[in-house]
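Inputs:
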Amino acid sequence: MSYNKQFNAETQLKLSPFFDRTSKLNESQEWRRWSGYLSATNYELTHENEYFAIRTKAALLDITPLYKYLIEGPDTQRFLDRLVTRNINICKVGQVMYTPWCNEDGKVIDDGTVQRISERKFRITSAEPNFEWLDYNAAGMDLTISDDSVTTAALAIQGPNSRDILNTVSSDSLNNLKFFWMMNTNFGDIPVSISRTGYTGDLGYEIWMDPNDALFIWDLLLEKGKPYGITPTGLQALDIARIEAGLILLDVDYISSRHAIIESRKSSPYELGLGWAVKMKKKYFIGKQALEREVTRGPEWEFVGIEIQWTELENHYRNVGLAPGLPSTAWRTSTPLYYKHEQVGYATSGAWSPILKRYIALAHVKSAYAIEGTKLQFELKVEHFRKLTTAKVVKTPFFDPERKRSCPS
Amino acid sequence: MPELKKYDAIVIGGGHNGLTAAAYLSRAGKKVLVLERRYILGGAAVTEEIFPGFKFSVCSYVVSLMKPIVMQELMLPKFGLELLPLESTFTPLDNDYLIRTADPDETYREIARHSLRDAEAYMRFGPLMGQIGMAVRPILETIAPNAIRPSLSDLFAGKKLLNHFKSLTSEQFEYLTKLMAMSSADFLDEWFEFEPLKSTMAASGITGTLMGPRSPGSAYVMLHHYMGDIDGSFRAWGFQRGGTGAVSMAIARSAQHFGADIMTEAPVEKVIVKNGKAVGVALENGDEYTSDIVISGLDPKLTFLKMLDESDLPSNFVTDIKNFRIRGSSGKVNLALDGLPDFTCLPGDGHHLRGAIIISPSYDYLERAYDDAKYGNFSQEPYLDIILPSVLDPDMAPPGKHVMSCFVQYAPYNIKGGWDDQKREAFGDAVINALARFAPNIKDIILHRQVLTPADLESTFGLTQGNIFHGELSLQQLFALRPAVQWADYTTPIRGYYQCGSGTHPGGGITGSPGEMAAKKILSKW
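Outputs:
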């Protein structure tokens, strides 16, 4: 039992080990809550420069609020393989896998990355607390689970220049680090581990470190990254980037089956566009039986990208004497989608993509209407009146640059 | 003073349920008279200035399940209903504490300080209890059927309930069954490991009952408390500005707005019965009022065994009422304070003082407190449910001063040798000592102390045996069995005589529900 007698309003939200720097850099003083942390919405008064840092320079994001668990012991591989839908048995030391995990009904609890740190040691990240679920499923297994959420701090450096910046500070070159692999290296005397992962769909890395080294590393990256355009970046820019990358967000695009209070709020991996991550050839994983039935039947819903068609959108606004109104930031309001006046789905997040110059959204659509090219009607409010405008089902990711996966030759 | 001596309906008892029934009947155009024994309205929901400048919610102290439809139909906000949220639940411990607040991040973080597992389980527990509450609500909102000779509408209601049960998910069904059968300690053990969290939650399962946290059936009482309903959100508890008496006054003003006559200091001696039918009431001063409808807001013992002669009633019914469990188990200590209590584990002012302060550090603490009561003593180290109304509503005390309400359990009505002044003071001392263990300055800041034993609750508020719920909320006396089989639909064996107190379905707490449903039942037959 710990003793904390400092319980008051000032300590109600957690402060990341980077807060001493981020709080001073945050010109807008706009903050959001992320997993109980104060997290910068944007550092400048608008997020635009930060967004373009992700796509054209390098963005630096404090991702410490991610939940992180270390799992260690002889049964760890077996345990994780049972837990998640991907095949952990083929995950090599130094490899990272993105995966969802489900309850027995095959409904997604959370999604995150599994890092194989050593033969018997893994780290798993998640959007929500998952200790109880991990612990519950580890019964009878020879392993230990420790909450690493506070004991490891993390930064994401994302964007085309991110590799160059890391190469200037890292004792080992990152040129051979492949997409979804990780390595241990040093920044000066400080050991860090770097994974080539991220939530932007761009070239990018995530740096895992001891919280005591947090400020040193932040300062070092900002200093050495300056010539490369490194930019402290907040959640608003990240939200647009992750939509462009077609990456789902828990509690926005889906609800954890651990917390959804009614059945219809729960989603299977197939219903979230994560069918590729479900390895049915595995002997067993939690939810497999239910998912087998779903595969036979075909999923009821699918998760798709939609693109709101420009000319029609423009006409709606022109009819009331306005230029097209576009969202300046990503939105998260569930928005109905129709097919011939019948509602067949709903978009859960969307944004105007500044790099693609397209109005895009992520949507749940009944399977029959999820085929690429299907024209749906998107509900749009123009000057207080609801209009329907055409939105086409398209492939995701909307934005998928070659640099995301490539290595320098 | 009302001149009319003939009324469409007479309500005995100006408690919040009696007033609610009166307001509904008046709203339907009936001429209604409410007769209250005391000088003040409200029954157990009453605010009194016991010590100059300090207002006490003397008896009932929080508002839990006040039904939204009652608040709306009787326009209670217009007549003074102002419910302030209780922000937190604070459990002081000897070297630490536990606090739960309205903020999920803050509560998660605080529970995780003690147990990471519990912090996550807690996030799921609340919504689940909300869902179970949803599952139970249609039962609470249905007029309990006559289980032996059901009427046509009883059958329809029964069919509806059956369909409702069929619609429950397996999870809802599982937990509902468990809540009906288990002790709150066993039920919570399935969910949590940090004992102060469990013992604090379990405490709501013993409130107003002579049961311990390990007594089977206590889990249901816990659920009953989980269904508090403020602004439509389940589980929230609230504090009425001006004390609970202000709730009663809001209902009274609503009743008067609709045309009801209300008399205080008008104790009823008997219901006048002629040929098996109620025809009016006789007051202790000899005055008589006639009416074809008489409604009692008193508890079942007083409603039937005092207001009527046993010879007027079927003997098996008299037996049922005599067996109705109404054991008083709690007392109340109200303090006028010169300042705020200072908790050793969390010194100074803070939002831990803006909600419930629960002295319930472990299961054993509660169970030992119960052991004392089982054998006819008050608890040497009692469970306390404390609020500081003046922190939420400064008008309750002079500036800078405070009032403190301590609900205390256990204080059995049937104490060895009976209650007397000496035992009352010893009981009061035990309460102060239990609190001083965690807030030692309390002894230095008491300006006035009001100690109410179950015997006092009985003599002052007409609560038989001092039971705050007009009868325990145990399963064998709920729904179609409250207060007796065949007579759970607010009717009685005497034609024209109805009941509308907390001793009827759905039970105790400031809900307005028995009053509302009794009135609707009466109006449906009019």
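Remarks. Residues 1-5 of chain A have pLDDT under 50 and may be disordered. DSSP finds nine helices and 19 strands in chain A.
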